[in-house]
Amino acid sequence: MSADDITTIEQDAAAALPALLARSYARYSNFTVAAAVIDEQGRAHLGVNVENAAYPSGTCAEQTAIGAMVTAGSRRIARVLIAAGSNAVVQPCGACRQRIAEFASDDCEIVSVQDGVATQRAPFWSLLPESFGPRDLG
Ligand code: THU
Question: Which protein residue has the closest C-alpha to ligand 1 atom 14?
């Protein structure tokens, strides 16, 4: 996949996130989040946060999107795009950083999306240095 290809795929996925926010089930926090995980083949996998009356049973948007990616047969993440209904820049929570680490490529980026456009990006591994991961288990 060329750099131009991933840029186009990322722009399309970012543009899809504002509408996806309407599917978030954020009944308790009212904090809606939508995410897109782009795999190394350039396929976008979408997710929203899904809360639960038993609060800890709720899931983050990134978690939903990673599950969709694995279900679709992919194992490597090139980009994670995140949009919040508040339109604020949102970074993945600690637990989701660990979930992303399981599948992140060496050059994986976390991309914040506002109004359907990427506004901020960070190399994923700068957000989770010195992490524990699959390599530690051999
Ligand atoms: N949330 C996400 O889905 N992703 C994040 O990166 C941060 C937080 C969700 C979890 C919960 O449903 C709501 O936002 C408030 O914490």
Answer: 31
**pTM of the predicted model, to two decimals?**
0.96
All domains of the chain in start order, with CATH:
3-128 (3.40.140.10)
46 beta partners? 36
Indicate if ligand 1 lies below 6 Å from the C-beta of 68. Answer: no
Of all protein residues, the one whose alpha carbon is nearest to atom 2 of ligand 1 is 60
Can you tell me the mean pLDDT for 107-114?
98
CB of residue 98 inside a 6 A radius of ligand 1: no
Our answer on whether the CB atom of 113 is closer than 6 Å to any ligand 1 atom is no
**How far, in Å, from the CA of 60 to the mean position of ligand 1?**
5
Answer whether 82's CB lies under 8 Å from 91's CB: yes
Q: Of 116, 47, 119, 117, whose CA–CA distance to 89 is shortest?
A: 119
